[in-house]
Sequence to fold (663 residues):
Amino acid sequence: MRHGTGTLTYKNGSVYEGQWERGMKWGQGKMTYASGNYYDGQWANNKRNGQGTMFWLTSDEKYEGNWEDNFQSGFGAHIWLDGTTDSKLLRNRYVGYWRLGQRHGKGTFYYSNGSKYEGEWKENFKHGAGTFTFEDGTQYVGPFENDRMVNRAVPQKDAAALALQPQAGGEEGQTGKKDAKGAGAKKAGAKKGGDAAASSKAGGKAASGAASATAGASGLGGTTQSRFAAGRAKKEVEENPFRKLIDISDLMELENSPEETLKEVQNILLRHNSELKQWYRIYSRKIEAHKCEESFAMTLRQVWRFLRDTHLVSANSTLAQFDRVYNEGVKNHFTLLGSKDQDKFDKMYGVSKPGTGAEGEGGASAQPKAGNISDEEDEEEEVIAGEGGDKDAEDTHDALKIVLQRQFFEAVARAASVRYASGSDALPTLSHKLQHLFESNFGPLAVKNKSKTIEDEKAFKVADKVLEEYSEELTGVFNHFSSKSGNMTNGRKDSTLQVNELLQMLEKTNLLDGKTSDLKLEDVVHLLEKYYAPEGTLKAKLAQENFEQHLKANPMLLRVNQEAAAKKLKAEEAAKRAEARRLAAEEAGEEQPPEEEEPAQEDPEEELDEEAKAARDEAELEQLRADWGEQVLSEHLVYINGVELVYFEFKELLLELALRLKD
Fold:
């Protein structure tokens, strides 16, 4: 009788590697089926029981979560790993509770176009209270019955969106049916050793289920939907879609003519619709891309990169400020949960008793059963289930936060508000500001300008792995020096580090003492502003032309001018004395005024040759520039002392400091 740890190879090529107890797969183990599909996780009673992950390589699907007697039961996440297309923002995925291989209880289905359903499920159907968020961000909140919205006349726009919505290809990846026909199908699949065979059958059923879950949500038939879709396409020519896609009503409170300004902002976005979509596609997939199996969408980090490339980030318009204004948008909150987020899920959706049960009410855990099953019987009886201050609060500055395409459109409009927050007589309204940015920043610089070099990106990618290893320690340091550690804004975490706090950290670690390293305060400021818009940075203020203007405004700082002025003054004084002697002589009736007595000669300075004079003047000029630079730096520090850094910028700076010290 097998007991302990070992490997068993079946006749059909399937292999089990893991723990055994009393002749049964029990404990941690990995089962690789003949098809190549595999399960890695906990076993009991020869079945998948407990936490585990199933990969269906034959259909590009994955489930990670709780299992009970070979079925997805309890909390888990199922994701379809199909490839990307231009229309896809996410991968279809379900996160929530299961019972006997079916979505049952509280759960969220994320669709590839960015829409999602959050609410109650019953035997794979949306059933009960729920919220459906459409692609444009509008919502239906209310009851569902057998996958359909109850008592709701669906506007043309919603019907069209649902009719065109991508469908998941097999939402649960298993049958989970208890009727004789379903059992026969499962057994047949098992006899073929074919988790793949069962998956194929289940996938087909699930695909049709997905279609009904998607299109059926409207409560309209496909033919009616098609008519609505056609009508909508015609109407779209006349109606600006940005009226629904974005919600910047909070910004309009600051406008003198809010309705007129809002309409013009929507029109500006519509005129640049093609460019916006192109920028979104490029930045989300090619620039600082973070590999993520859940999403093809842009992340907040890539939005930051867009703002940096287009010269919108500065001491006056920081990433922290942008994040806060962006998060004020009621449509800009999209939380993508996974299999490891059960506690967060339960809190968000009010599941009162987290457990392994299908509805968060607890479930039976597998207990050992006596008995010995032969290798062949064990393999034949396999049912391939699934075949065919608040730590959980949203982080305002989460670099990996999902930003859907419609949210990016709104982010662009909100960026104009941040960039010109101090006001401008030349740009009195948000529409003026936005149009100016398209003409002066977005159009000329988006994609074309690279605020980060390829080398910068590669260096951070390598360093980020190390930084993640020390994430807990680094976060501790960040929070220790931050006066805003644990700060909350509208229920969201909002921790930042001010520049003066960063400098305190560097001083306490002796990095600015001139002994531990040759790092200078000026170097730190340059690194801080590396990705800022050029104008207004310390580097720009220290430019040679500014120093020359400083000398022009203060000519007496140069010795050559001092000497010339002294010589001129001496000549003027001598002329005055000569004139005084002449007048005195006239009064005395003397023909010639007396000669002026030679003053006592001071020790003359040693006359320098031209080369020595040039060297002296150059040294003095360098000293003048250094003194001027110190003054500029001192004034600039006052200017940036209160500037806030988000945690991502803190990590970037640590990398830059490490490279600087290494050099």
